[in-house]
Design goal:
Elements lengths: L1 H37 L11 H10 L10 H5 L10 E5 L5 H13 L3 E3 L7 H10 L4 E8 L2 E9 L5 E5 L9
Parallel strand pairs: 1-2, 1-3
Antiparallel strand pairs: 3-4, 4-5
Helix pairs in contact: 1-2
GO molecular function: rRNA primary transcript binding; snoRNA binding
GO biological process, one term: rRNA processing
Protein name: Brix domain-containing protein
Length: 172
């Protein structure tokens, strides 16, 4: 388990470094193109690499491809594979919060609701990774009123916090 996490972290860091180098190369080519179109002299910091960059520019298509970022790769399989969403609450949820989470389950397709119990968030995230769950939504409350959503895309994806104000439930 620990080896797998280390391997995933290495793969993530390697892909981030490759992305940074591709982005830097793309920007250098763009600067060379702009200089050649305007007829200005080559900048001094690019003179050593100018010959190789010109050769690469000549081999490319008319419209250069913008390098993809990690965020694009993270969501590349979104249309191919159905997302699996896990909804959970704070440790000791009130009745109003459990009703709110039941309503959220209807809102998010392919979602599963889990009673958190005494589990720590890190344990929940690990179990989500093991069961190929793509997104985790954690609902918080304050004095019986839902006041926040934490949405996290797994395994490395972005995490967002949404504050909830004036949440109104069903009156029926």
């Amino acid at each position: 388990m620990i080896r797998r996490r280390i391997r995933d972290r290495r793969r993530y860091l390697y892909s981030k470094s490759v992305e940074a180098s591709q982005r830097a190369l793309f920007e250098k080519k763009g600067r060379i193109r702009a200089v050649l179109e305007e007829g200005n002299p080559i900048p001094t910091e690019l003179r050593n690499e100018e010959h190789e960059l010109r050769r690469q520019i000549d081999l490319e298509d008319q419209e250069p491809r913008v390098p993809k970022s990690m965020v694009d790769n993270e969501y590349a399989t979104a249309s191919v594979r159905e997302p699996k969403v896990l909804l959970t609450t704070s440790r000791n949820p009130s009745a109003a919060l459990t009703q709110f989470v039941k309503k959220l389950k209807v809102v998010f397709p392919m979602s599963q609701r889990m009673n958190r119990g005494g589990q720590v968030i890190s344990e929940i995230v690990e179990s989500c990774r093991l069961h190929d769950i793509t997104d985790l939504i954690l609902v918080h409350e304050h004095r019986g009123q839902p006041d926040g959503l934490i949405v996290s895309h797994l395994p490395n994806g972005p995490t967002a916090y949404f504050g909830l104000l004036n949440v109104v439930g069903d009156t029926a």
